Task: structure prediction
Amino acid sequence: MRFDIITVLPDLLESPFAHSILQRAQKKGLAEIVVHNLRDYSSNKQKSVDDYQYGGGSGMVMGIEPFANCIEKLLVERKYDEVIFMTPDGKTLNQSMANELSGKENIMILAGHYKGIDQRIRDIFVTREISIGDYVLSGGELPAAVLVDSIVRLLPGVLNDETSALSDSFQGELLDAPVYTRPADWRGHRVPDILLSGHEAAINDWRHEQALERTKQRRPDLLE
Ligand code: ADE
Result:
């Protein structure tokens, strides 16, 4: 699966994809993540990408031309299943959205800054607008990284133990049960005996009860 991300801060997106699972996915050839510097598509001498907004108001707006130049170049190279704009007024990302997007081949992601981007970019090119939550960040780069991470870890072969993505919180209707590792006793704080019992069926029952209890306490909305 391929991602093309368009941003004015390509450096910000170097690190999130250069470690751990996302790095391994790229090394294995399961995901390709290409970051494009929007300034390379500005035709003026200063390489600026923003301008004052029509009608007045504070804050600069990212202009149509650099985005259009970059998007149109990419559209010639391959067919995109989605052109996604990261924005707090988009639809909130959830697990089922990540699952759905993990079935696509090519996704383009636009990361905005300043006051926003010219509405015509959204009208003409964007097929989906996604928010990562009801709070405002200073740009779309971190949201783009969150979106890509949520998708790439679902691609077959990316996680060592494929079932571990399937048993994530939100993948079913329940949150995850608590997990423990050695030592079995740390300063008197003991791992629940059941987990040391070796009774697989009883352990599975216990995990299910714990998951249910946690969901009731923390996210009753998921049970409705
Ligand atoms: N850009 C700024 N804040 C954002 C958010 N919460 N989600 C997606 N994109 C954003």
Remarks:
- The chain has a mean pLDDT of 96.
- The chain is about 35% helix and 20% strand.
